[in-house]
Design a protein that fits this description.
Layout lengths: L8 H6 L2 H8 L3 H8 L6 E5 L7 H8 L4 E6 L2 H10 L4 E4 L13 E7 L8 H9 L2 E12 L5 H13 L2 E8 L3 E8 L1
Helix pairs in contact: 3-4, 6-7
């Protein structure tokens, strides 16, 4: 169960763009550009929430790219579809990805969501199988929920799946990484 379930006060606060920018220096358009998401890409976002980053992803891949957003909560997915109608929104559990095994994505994104998934290693292994050759996994981690040991575990799982850190950027509150399939 996510730590910020949809419809609760915490979800409204965490999903508020202004509060996110003030507390975490989140600038989705800048972060998506920094990560290398560009026109024409097929992108999967896991744990999209209210779509703080989904909108930026959609703008970056348009007009011929695709964004698929998976959200655990039906209510959050409904609101996300309303806010970002161009994205394909899927309700589902990240531990049992509701995506065909044959699907391939240029980028799979976890914008502050992997910390909230109890079985993160399982999700990372499943997600890594959906990354196209040369594709990437984008991780944004919030330090209070991702201590160094947890970050090392996450990176270790991805390294075992043949991903290498391509870029890393951190500040006092957030750690952002782009891991590329080798």
């Amino acid at each position: 169960m996510p730590l910020t379930p949809a419809g609760r006060l915490s979800a409204l606060i965490v999903g508020n763009r202004t509060i996110r920018r003030v507390l975490g220096f989140d600038l989705p358009e800048r972060d998506v550009r920094w990560a290398g998401v560009r026109r024409g890409m097929r992108v999967l976002e896991l744990g999209a929430g209210r779509g703080l980053y989904t909108q930026a992803l959609e703008k970056a891949v348009r007009p011929d790219g695709t964004v698929v957003a998976i959200e655990y909560s039906e209510e959050a997915a409904r609101l996300l579809h309303k806010d970002v109608p161009a994205a394909r929104v899927v309700v589902g559990d990240a531990t049992k990805l509701p995506i065909s095994e044959r699907s391939r994505f240029d980028a799979i994104c976890f914008f502050y969501s992997i910390e909230e998934i109890p079985q993160a290693e399982i999700v990372l292994r499943q997600a890594s199988r959906l990354v196209a050759p040369g594709g990437m996994i984008i991780l944004h981690l919030w330090r209070p929920l991702s201590p160094k040991r947890k970050r090392s575990s996450i990176v270790g799982v991805l390294r075992s799946e043949r991903f290498q850190i391509e870029a890393r950027w951190s500040d006092f509150q957030n750690v952002r990484m782009v891991l590329k399939r080798q």
